[in-house]
Specification:
Strand content: 25-35%
Radius of gyration: 27 Å
Number of strands: 19
Distance between the termini: 62 Å
Number of helices: 17
Length: 493
């Protein structure tokens, strides 16, 4: 039972929290779910996870004084704070050689280890990271978060605890904790702040131990709409028209982490209705969509992309979304579906829209099939948005002016990244997408079907009005949204 009248607050409001003698002993905090938020003018402000816990508040008032102020704090935040303070006394020793499995299990489930890892995961989720990296180096273990496409060191920890943390992750992901010589892959599903989070776990052996990476997916996060993706008005209109075609193949292309799946989910959200049977096959399902039947692959039971695709056509779908075209078997099935009256959405890893044609041909799809089924290719990149709190504007340098002139983009000034507390001194906050849309018409189809090379296809694409990624990027620089340095990282200038 919770105690009425106790207001909820975030720990962040009181950072940095009292330490040392000003804070309760670690064991007391852990046992009672309580901590000192602030000491001021001889009084104390205390946070408790469960204000209704038997006699806790009265007990603290008798020690700290009747004027003590109490607030309710979120237990996940409290666990994160505990993990950050964990000294990990149970993780001593190097743990090298052939460790006993029972000892490893016990070590991995020690409360300090659990608190530390919970802290890492909770902080990562709240920081909207895409990946969590745990590495072991000579000076110790390092936790890094990938935020807005860049790795940042989040915390460091002793070498002696790395194996226990590794074992804990493996237990959560149902992996073999004794196996440290071969790569392993698994999944962790966790509920944090009421949100179901799916994490894909990858471990590989290194010369010092292991490298562990957790890719984070928020499965209950709502898909963005097409408007929220930031497409230009012309691209948005063209994409909406493409989604009305009865059959054919529409591809989203770009490197890993460029937002392709987010774009496809936005498309599905745009067209889902009670009158359409929409099926997807994904690895993993990153976003849950009402009105869409979503299938997650599972290699352990041989539920692969091509296995699912062979059965999907028997489900009488109108629209299909295939997470990725990885091989010839998948490509052949996708093309077959597009030929037999289905609209198929999928992704490829290519640098630009035109390269998707060469990629399909290299996989083994006949040129005439590529030409007849392909409706459009949407190439994209994610670039960081310059921080509005600290950015400065200045005239373009001579080299930058030449770049703008070469691509026919006007720019009187360009933003510069500076860095401030709001952007963690990176100079950037958040990301947005750049798009390059290539639509297939009769003339372009003829070029594809006759096996024209990429240079000829690129020239024809520009002639038909395809706006290159570099031009889209320069437009956003001229608009003050990002910097030249940032687009140089993502787009070939």
């Amino acid at each position: 039972m919770s105690q009425p009248g106790i207001e909820r607050v975030s720990l962040e409001k009181y950072y940095p929290l009292p330490e040392g003698d000003a804070q309760f002993p670690f064991e007391y905090c852990e046992a009672n779910g309580a901590l000192v938020l602030e000491r001021k003018d001889g009084g104390a402000t205390v946070g408790v996870c469960d204000p209704g816990s038997d006699g806790l508040i009265e007990s603290l008032k008798s020690v700290l004084g009747r004027a003590t102020v109490f607030y309710r704090v979120d237990r996940s935040e409290f666990s994160s704070w505990l993990g950050s303070r964990t000294a990990l006394p149970g993780a001593s020793g190097t743990m090298e050689g052939q460790d006993d499995r029972v000892a490893l299990d016990r070590m991995a489930n020690d409360t300090p280890i659990v608190n530390f890892l919970n802290s890492v995961l909770i902080d990562a989720i709240r920081s909207a990271v895409s990946d969590i990296h745990l590495s072991l180096f000579d000076e110790g273990g390092v936790v890094r978060y990938r935020v807005d496409g860049r790795l940042q060191v989040a915390r460091k920890f002793p070498v002696s605890m790395f194996q226990a943390v590794s074992s804990r992750i493996k237990i959560m992901a149902n992996l073999n904790i004794m196996e440290r010589r071969l790569p392993q892959d698994g999944r962790i599903t966790a509920n944090i702040d009421g949100l179901s989070i799916d994490m894909r776990v990858s471990t590989v052996p290194t010369t010092r131990g292991e490298s562990i990476v957790l890719r984070v997916f928020g499965r209950e996060t709502s898909a963005r709409s097409l408007e929220e993706l930031g497409m230009s008005a012309s691209v948005l209109s063209a994409v909406r028209n493409l989604l009305k075609v009865p059959h054919g193949l529409v591809l989203a292309t770009g490197p890993t982490g460029s937002g392709k799946t987010t774009t496809l989910n936005a498309m599905l959200r745009e067209i889902r209705s009670d009158e359409l049977k929409i099926l997807t096959v994904e690895d993993p399902v990153e976003c849950s969509l009402d009105g869409v039947d979503q299938i997650q692959t599972n290699d352990l039971i041989k539920l692969s992309f091509d296995t699912v695709l062979r059965r999907m056509l028997r489900q009488d779908p109108d629209i299909m979304m295939v997470g990725e075209i990885r091989d010839q078997a998948t490509a052949d099935l996708v093309v077959r579906a597009a030929l037999t009256g289905h609209l198929v959405l999928s992704t490829l890893h290519t640098n630009d829209s035109v390269s998707a044609v060469a990629r399909l041909r290299n996989i083994g799809v006949e040129p005439y099939l590529v030409g007849s089924t392909l409706r459009a290719v949407l190439a994209q990149r994610l670039v960081r948005r310059v921080c509005p709190h600290c950015r400065t504007l200045s005239p373009p340098s001579a080299g930058e002016a030449a770049l703008f002139n070469r691509w026919g983009v006007a720019a009187d000034s360009v933003p510069r990244a500076v860095g401030c507390p709001q952007c963690r001194n990176s100079g950037y906050i958040g990301r947005f997408a750049l798009f390059e849309l290539l639509e297939n018409d009769a003339d372009f189809e003829s070029l594809i079907s006759t096996g024209a090379n990429s240079a000829s296809l690129a020239h024809a694409a520009r002639e038909t009005g395809t706006v290159p990624l570099v031009v889209s990027a320069l437009w956003r620089v001229a608009a003050g949204d990002t910097t030249i340095e940032e687009i140089e990282r993502e787009v070939e200038l």
